[in-house]
Amino acid sequence: MDNLNRCLAVLIMGLTYKVFDASAAKILLLPIDHLNHVNMLAVAGQKLATQGHEVTILCAPRTEKILTKFTTIEKWFYNFPSHWKNSDLDERLQATVFNGTNWDLYKVSNDLMNGAMGDHVKLLEDKELEKRIDDSKFDLAVCDGAMLNRILLILPYRHGIPFLQLSPVPEPWRAGVLSLPSVESFLFLKASDKMTFFERVLNTIMTVCFYTFTPPVSKSRFHELITKHVPNKPALTQSELYLKSEMWLVNMEHHILDFPHVSHPAYRIIGGVGVKPVTPLTGDLAKFVDGAKDGVILMTFGSGVHHIPEDIMDKLMTGFSQIKQRVVMRSKGAKLSNKPENVMLMDWIPQSDVLGHPKTRVFITHGGNSGQLEAVARSVPMLYVPLAGDQRHNAYKAMARGYGLMIDINNFTPNELVDNINELIDNKSYKENLLKAAAILKDLPNPQDEMAFWVNHVLKFGGSHLKPISLDMPWYQWLMLDILVFMIFIAFIFYQIIKISCRLMCRCCCKGGKQKND
């Protein structure tokens, strides 16, 4: 009888496991209010939806237009306008990106961060959203891993939802990955995997300062928020909550675009999650591109830049008037009297589809992560015009790989623009390097499939078995400083023993010599 009961118990456990394994999970996506980040998580969500999961994305109302094509995802929108609706903030950003000092850029970036975090506080205070999440019984949250999203991690913690993070920016030290500044360049410095001694010194200083002095939210503010909104659970610190993530998936290509990075089983680098399949162009854009017998130049500075200053636009138009290719350029609301006939201005461009068109010859870009990934996947040489953040770093990486060139937005001339475009088209080495890179990228595991695999793995088993012990070690043990101090101490003791022994031997020898003479 006991054997029969045991067999029945094992059978029931097996059937229960199979039912859970095969059932569709309910997944909540939590991106920051940035169009590229929303697109990245929406593409990931669309992939998960095709596997039978019920996927919901929570984002700002201004993203509704770009989400219309994601028909298999349920959309929840904030019930308030996002911080981007602050016209003064947006105008300051547009002016600062092109003409401001580094200090001006820091101030407006700080205001943008505060605005984003203010939106997240409003979400935590939204009682209707709180009830909606409770009623939905989500099995997993996929959170944007950007630093701006730290406050929003409180949301799944409050509701008892396991979460993992999908991030376009690597933060290896925060996730317990021992990446060495001697070989991995800091995001805001010149990118290289072959640094000089002083470059390694600077890289180390910047890396240590970044992780030491730039917590995304102040400790007191974070403690105030978590104790207020999660009163019935331990008031975790920002770092403790970050480490509760089941996994970290980094949307950064480090085989053919970035330099190789170290990782661990819970920290996976799977670049290209947001790259979508190419779809045919339509309407006037299709006619314009298809009719370009000498090819097309695509130019866009991303979703964050709406207006380009008049003096820069004049130089761009002068340069474009001297080339035989047609130009598709994103410039919101621009009306120019000197626009050449070979230039088409658009408020919005299907960037991925234009890059995938066989007539596209060059991509003029600010150097955003998603755009350069798409360009590499489509084998399109890039002319970088970095504006802020990690964009110059990205440009240096591409130049080191032979994928493109770079010009300074504030100091270029029309002739320099034309010369760089012609160099990228006429010098076949750029195209050849990118064709090889695209072939390597295609041969690697599909990033969306890999992302979906790890999400499903976490749904089945959680992520604790993937995490290394380094996540629980004090920083001085993790960096082996205690071992280093111990070894220095032992070496010092040996030195002292040898030193004292030598003195004693010398004294004995000297004493023996004196006695002999006597």
TrEMBL record:
Listed EC numbers: 2.4.1.17
EC class of the enzyme, as a word: transferase
Compartments it resides in: Membrane
Record field: catalytic activity: glucuronate acceptor + UDP-alpha-D-glucuronate = acceptor beta-D-glucuronoside + UDP + H(+)
Residues that span the membrane, as ranges: 475-495
Keyword Coiled coil: no
Single GO MF descriptor: glucuronosyltransferase activity
PANTHER family in UniProt: EG:EG0003.4 PROTEIN-RELATED, FI06409P-RELATED
Record's protein name: UDP-glucuronosyltransferase
